[in-house]
Design brief:
The protein is α/β, with parallel strands linked by helices. It contains 14 helices and 18 strands. The protein binds nicotinamide-adenine-dinucleotide and zinc ion (2 copies).
Length: 388
């Protein structure tokens, strides 16, 4: 079959690879119908997540049809249209039982490197390196889905493939980010990043009761999209001083919660950004411009909810602000399984719009071009959806 493979840093290509087979009783094989690019892939392509190997198939945000089920699968059936959570979790361990699916003890089939880096291994993640299981991804004609009863969800008929595919990753990540914020009536929430994840976090914050949601980015087309599609306020960080603007918009208090949906490749200006770039090029730290700004902007007693992905260390981390303003920092890879059934219902009811995110539906054979457009934010690309 054809698949889009990681061949080295900034080197992708469509290759002929073997089709996946059932390896464990609880596996299903899914024939992919739609597979989205994601900001997380950029960290792999740019070489900031270690443990990728030449030939690894990319893609973790996907939807398709079940074509084969393992003997231990109870609920999934051949012919079903399913959306699959990007995180691979067993559903049974002490973490899954607490709803902490991305901390699953059994999803990562190659836990040693993760343990040596972070202490204890988390769940598996499709196509996210040999740190998190080395699973083959979904930018392919077929994909093997482990623990399918736990991670593959039937899709309501009224949602198209290109709308529902976001229930795999972007929508639940955004929802979790807002859920972490303990939003109360009257709260103001600021969101750094107007990509698919930031937009879905902003939409969730509004649905969870925020009085105002302010989204920060530098791309005019993304900011206009937030205003038009979600009806929310925006700030362009290249035009205003974000901390000052947020203070002005919140009667001098700062946002009650700040969501970081940018991650380790944040952009910025000035000497701090130059310092981050040099240190990141030497693989000594992650670029945390947006994270620092979120911490410094947040109101006293507020929550900083971090869903942007970080892999290593953050220099100049404003711990003094965390302690002395009494902030709570929450973060995780998405615990998607906890939210996806509820979110599919909300999406089908029209409460969470996603169709506008699918700016570039393309054939899988155009995968290299799709990532070039997405990485460089060309042609208004928010998400390319690859169709095998
Ligand atoms: N925790 C999870 O489970 C999970 C799931 C999916 C994605 N992610 C992460 O979420 C992040 C966003 O993903 P995405 O798909 O939306 O990516 P994206 O690349 O489409 O969007 C990121 C946006 O951040 C903006 N940005 C850069 N620097 C900024 C700054 N200083 N201030 C404000 N905005 C800034 C960029 O202009 C861009 O629009 C990534 O780090 C990704 O890895 C996490
Ligand atoms: Zn993702
Ligand atoms: Zn588990």
């Amino acid at each position: 079959m054809k698949a889009l493979c990681w061949m080295g840093v900034n080197d992708l290509s469509v290759e002929d690879v073997p089709e996946p087979t059932i390896l464990n009783d609880q596996d299903v094989i899914v024939k992919v119908r739609a597979s989205a690019v994601c900001g997380s892939d950029l960290h792999l392509i740019d070489g900031y997540i270690p443990a990728m190997r030449r030939g690894d198939i990319l893609g973790h945000e996907f939807l398709g049809e079940v074509v084969e089920v393992g003997p231990g699968v109870r609920d999934r059936r051949v012919g079903e249209r399913v959306v699959v959570c990007s995180i691979i979790s067993c559903g049974r361990c002490r973490y899954c039982r607490r709803g902490l699916f991305s901390a699953c003890d059994n999803g990562n089939a190659e836990p040693a490197a993760f343990e040596s880096l972070y202490g204890y291994a988390g769940a598996g993640i499709f196509a996210y390196s040999h740190l998190v299981g080395g699973y083959a991804g979904s930018h392919a004609e077929y994909v093997r889905v482990p623990f399918a009863d736990v991670g593959a969800f039937p899709v309501p008929e009224d949602l198209s493939d290109d709308e529902a595919v976001f229930a795999s990753d972007g929508v639940p990540t955004g929802w979790m980010a807002a859920d972490f914020c303990d939003i109360e009536p009257g709260h103001v929430v600021a969101v750094w990043g107007a990509g698919g994840v930031g937009q879905m976090a902003a939409a969730a914050a509004k649905l969870l009761g925020a009085a105002r949601v302010i989204v920060i980015d530098r791309f005019p087309d993304r900011l206009r999209m937030v205003e038009r599609e979600l009806g929310l306020e925006t700030l362009d960080y290249t035009r205003v001083d974000v901390r000052e603007a947020l203070r002005d918009l919140t009667a001098g208090r700062g946002p009650d919660a700040c969501i970081e949906a940018v991650g380790m490749e944040a952009h910025g200006n000035g000497p701090q950004y130059a310092y981050d770039r040099v240190k990141q090029a030497a693989r000594l730290e992650d670029r945390a411009v947006a994270l620092r700004e979120a911490i410094l902007s947040c109101a006293k007693g507020g929550v900083v909810s971090v869903v942007g992905v970080f892999g290593s260390f953050v220099d100049k981390f404003p711990m003094g602000a965390v302690v002395n303003k009494g902030l709570t920092i929450r973060s995780a890879q998405q615990h998607g399984h906890r939210y996806i059934p509820m979110l599919l219902e909300r999406m089908a009811a029209g409460e969470i719009p996603t169709a506008h995110l699918a700016t570039h539906p393309l054939p899988l054979s155009d995968g290299v071009r799709a990532y070039d457009m997405f990485k460089h934010k060309k042609d208004g690309c928010v998400r390319a959806i690859l169709h095998p």
